[in-house]
Amino acid sequence: MSKKINKIKVNLLLLVSICFLSATAYAAGGEEGTAGAQFLKIGCGVRAIGMGEAYSGVADDVNAIYWNPAGLNYVDNIHVYAMHTVWLEEMNYDYVAFARPFLGGVIGTSLNYLSMSGIDKMNEYGEKEGTFSPYDVAINVAYAREFGKVKSGINLKFIKQEIGDESATGYAVDLGLMHKFLEDKMQLGLAVQNLGPEITFIEESAPLPMTIRLGVGYKLNEKIILSLDTVAPVDEDISFRVGSEYSFKGIENFPIACRVGYKTNTTEDLDAFSGFSGGMGFILHGLEVNYAWVPYGDLGDTHRISLGTKFGGETEKIEKVKKISKKEKKVIIKKAEKYYVQGLELYKQKKYKQTLKQLKKVLKLNPAHQKAKKLEKAAIIRIFYREGVEYYKSGKYMQAISQMEAILKLRPTHKSAKKLKKKAENKLKK
């Protein structure tokens, strides 16, 4: 089985290497402004935009369909996503996406839609004969799968552009690879986008905006992610993107993320400040809400907002485990048990955050591991309690109460949490 996987990995890497070298040669021969279907360059996914579009080495959600289809391998449940962008010059850009585990991998589909408000249609005498609304649309179908430690993905897209009575259609493919290093703290990503034949519009043909992205993501710690992308489009000079994300817990312990990024390809045509981007997001009751702001100098600012949700994860993980062979399942269960023992030892040493890291590995391999779930809950409670005590000692009583309430949601009978909560409440009354 391992020999077969290794053979597949070699063939896959060879195929993508050929595509990468061919694409590089193609991009090197292009001239600025010569590509068609320019709307394909408009990024999708508010988190990625807030991070300066430095996402090909970070993509780990449904938006990987656009940035690097290999990132779809991280989707372990059903993920539904929708984005709306107030674009430039009375234009709107909308994006919807869906992904879920399927046939041992992950399948995803999305739609990109760039539209413009009605434009007056004039006849040969300069008289108005109604209005028309130009639009561009791309429909995507992607599939991702892991081969050993290498994550791979492919995205097929149908493209259509329409202005009045004229229209053009085309087809393209995206390819992607991802691989982790440095004890999974660093990840490299390679994506080749918009490989396909020329698109013909009003009897004029133009190549698609084929783009090569080489990115790296680095997880500095549990809260901070850093990213860097090198981007080589067929019709522009090579440019760079840098981004970062800082995550923390807000009131009621719901996750909040702040993002900032910068890209170099806008500084020549606009002012230097136009390369910056920023945004934030949070998850509340299972609903993901994200916002990103990107300035474009004299052209104005663009604003993006998105909503997303995930569900069905546990069932999908179990189904994925069922499809492997009995021999492989024994190996996985043994490996998961090894991680659990390591996690238990860390828990006894009161290293609770390291405990959670080990248990995450356990539950990734065996989602039905009840002891790991129980220990995970205990470790989370310990972390919350420790943080709550520190808040109390430093006089941050509201935060201490919030931590204790989080504990009591997990374990309503926790006596120490009840006691500390009451003490903090009494302090606030004084």
Description:
The strands form 3 sheets. This protein has a 14-stranded antiparallel beta barrel. A two-stranded antiparallel sheet has the order 4-5. Strands 10-11 form a two-stranded antiparallel ribbon. The protein has 430 residues and is an alpha+beta fold. It starts with a helix and ends with a helix. It has 2 domains: 2-314, Outer membrane protein transport protein (OMPP1/FadL/TodX) (Porin, Beta Barrel); 324-429, Alpha Horseshoe (Serine Threonine Protein Phosphatase 5, Tetratricopeptide repeat). The radius of gyration is 25 Å and the shape is globular. Residues 1-5, 7-29 and 314-322 have low confidence and may be disordered. The protein is 32% helix and 39% strand.
